[in-house]
Design a protein that fits this description.
Esterase of the alpha/beta hydrolase fold, 6 strands, 6-stranded parallel sheet, alpha/beta
Length: 217
């Protein structure tokens, strides 16, 4: 069994067919990684007290000596900030984290009142992971560049801005995303944008997100 693990944290409403997290899950499994892709309860109306235990249960299931990479999208990235901010000193620290499309603090939606962004604490991210990086699209209405830059400065982490990438979701063509795959594979990788843009839309055939996401609670 592989000692390399990836934890994919889906965002609001869970990934739809063609989303890069579904593609990445299949790619990493093919390469022999252990893929953790938990299904969070009520993905259309996320609630912190329901989502956070699922995330922490999955983190705790990975042996401490194994490599663990986390890629979180949208409110999944918001969830990671809450996890980091309330992490205990003996809780598991991961190797690398990518926060994709972290919503701006000014983005409000009535379905998301249960999972709003916490105040930024740079020290908490360093305690939670060896490396944390952000990526956003230049035209993302949910994670505007200006607010993403403010997040990155406050959290003291690197930020990649990908031209015309929207919210980095299936509707924006993300899809196969070589940059995310290369970043996950290479501990020395820095810029996600430099590692590759998305390829043609994924041909997932009959594969549905319910077949890929882990239904365990």
């Amino acid at each position: 069994m592989s000692d390399r693990h990836v934890l994919l944290v889906h965002g609001w409403q869970s990934p739809t067919r063609g989303h890069w997290q579904l593609w990445l899950s299949a790619e990493l499994r093919h390469l022999g990684w252990q893929v953790h892709f938990p299904r969070f309860p009520s993905p259309g109306t996320p609630v912190l007290r329901s989502w956070l235990p699922v995330l922490r249960d999955r983190l705790a299931s990975v042996p401490r000596g194994d490599e663990l990479v986390v890629l979180a999208h949208c409110v999944g990235a918001t969830l990671w900030l809450h996890h980091a901010a309330t992490l205990g000193g003996r809780d598991r620290r991961v190797d690398r984290v990518l926060l994709a499309g972290l919503p701006g603090r000014g983005w409000n939606h009535p379905d998301l009142v249960g999972l709003r962004p916490p105040p930024p604490h740079s020290w908490s991210l360093r305690r939670a992971a060896g490396i944390t990086r952000m990526v956003c699209g230049s035209d993302d209405p949910i994670a505007p560049v200006r607010e993403s830059e403010e997040w990155a400065r406050a959290l003291r982490i690197g930020l990649d801005v990908v031209p015309d990438a929207g919210h980095l979701d299936a509707e924006s063509g993300y899809g196969p995303w070589p940059g995310a795959l290369e970043w996950a594979l290479d501990p020395r990788a820095e810029s996600v944008a430099a590692a590759g843009n998305p390829g043609p839309p994924a041909d997932l055939g009959a594969l549905h997100h319910r077949d890929v996401l882990d239904a365990r609670r």
